[in-house]
Amino acid sequence: MNRRDFVRTLGTGVAAVIFANSTPAVSGEKVPRIAVISLHAPALAAEVDGIREELKKLGYAEGKTIAIEAYFTNGDKQHTRDILRTLIDKQVDIIVPWTTATVQLSMEMTQSIPLVMIASDPVQAKLVNSLSRPGANVTGVSMSGPDLAGKRLELLRKLVPGIRKVAFLSFAPSPGAAAFIRESKAAADKIGIELVLRSINQPDELDDTLFSDLKTEGAQALVVQPFFSGHAEKLAQLGLSFGIPVISDYPTFPVAGALASLGVDLSKRVRRTAYFIDRILKGAKPADLPVEEPTEFELVVNVRAAKALGIIVPTTLLARADKVIE
Q1: Which InterPro entries match (predicted)?
Q2: Which residues, 6 or more positions from 5, have their beta carbon under 8 angstroms from its beta carbon?
Q3: Which H helix or E strand runs over 95?
């Protein structure tokens, strides 16, 4: 039989995706277990395929020499804790916590199982001592943090000439929300844009009421904290329905129908965790593996969304874009 993907529901908004292979390991051999866990929405579960593909390039055969599980809890911290407790009790070999809050929970619950994190600005969030010497049982990849806030607002000024008021949407339970808000506010003040701050506590608050309120307050565009990447399609659709351009960090957003993104390639960063998994399985200690910062940033513009919003994208901006969605 071919490899099968099993998806089961663990509770409201919580999905577990288990990648398995029908070919068992050689009798008596221990197959390393890797568990990816994230507070992101289940829509991002497909990104785990990238980790599996990179591990295959490194010589691993799923079900024979490695096993991968993935859990996406849609912002539910209690379910995340419950899953982490099960993984720790089963003594998985490596945990890949994705989002700053997920890393924090993982660090609270285990100081022995290696953690290969995917997080924004891990030094600022106090997840590691430094990027070069992370310390403890943590290493991994850093995503672009809030430091690009000013560049995204400048991008909006080019896309929407004369823009005066921009909304910023954050996820209140996220440890990184405060930094994103602070940097966005400072950048907006510097270039003379009024920032409308909106924070929600649950993903199900992404609805017509939210966008109607933003429209009433005069928001001419919306910048979204990257935590909502798993809800990119819904946000893009709401933005088009209410005539509010939506931009964020990752290409996930314009691919889903939002106006643009400026930041790292999410898929590439997630795939990069395979390098750390491989090194740790071969004996390296997380504390000795420097955390990798992104070195490439991409501008992606969705021209189709721009047309629907009545926006004419400058040719100079199209020439600069790394990807243009027609």
Answers
A1: ABC_transpt-TYRBP-like, Peripla_BP_I
A2: 17, 18, 19, 20
A3: strand 94-98
Q: What are phi and psi of 192, to 5 degrees?
A: 80, 30
Dihedral pair phi/psi, residue 270, rounded to 5°? -65, -45
For 181, the token pair is 């808000």
* CATH superfamily label, 146-263+297-325: Response regulator (3.40.50.2300)
Helices (H), 35-176: 48-57, 77-89, 100-109, 149-159
120-127 — which CB contacts under 8 Å span 24+ positions?
120/144, 120/145, 120/146, 120/176, 120/226, 121/145, 121/146, 121/147, 121/176, 121/179, 122/291, 124/179, 125/100, 125/175, 125/176, 125/179, 127/100, 127/103
Residues of the chain with CATH 3.40.50.2300: 4-143+266-288, 146-263+297-325
- CB atoms under 10 Å from CB of 297, counted, come to 15
Report the mean per-residue pLDDT for the chain.
90
- What's the CA gap between 224 and 163, in Å, rounded? 17
pLDDT tens for each residue of 66-115 = 999 999 999 999 999 999 999 999 999 999 999 999 999 999 999 999 99
Question: For domain 4-143+266-288, which CATH number applies: 3.40.50.150, 3.40.50.1010, 3.20.20.30, 3.40.50.2300?
Answer: 3.40.50.2300
| 191: exposed, middle or buried (Cβ count in 10 Å: 0-12, 13-18, 19+) | exposed
CB atoms within 10 A of CB 70: 27
Could you give the CA distance from residue 275 to residue 37 in angstroms, rounded to a whole number?
18
DSSP 27-50: TTPPPPEEEEEESS-GGGGGGHHH
- 205: its two tokens: 């608050």
Prediction pTM value: 0.88
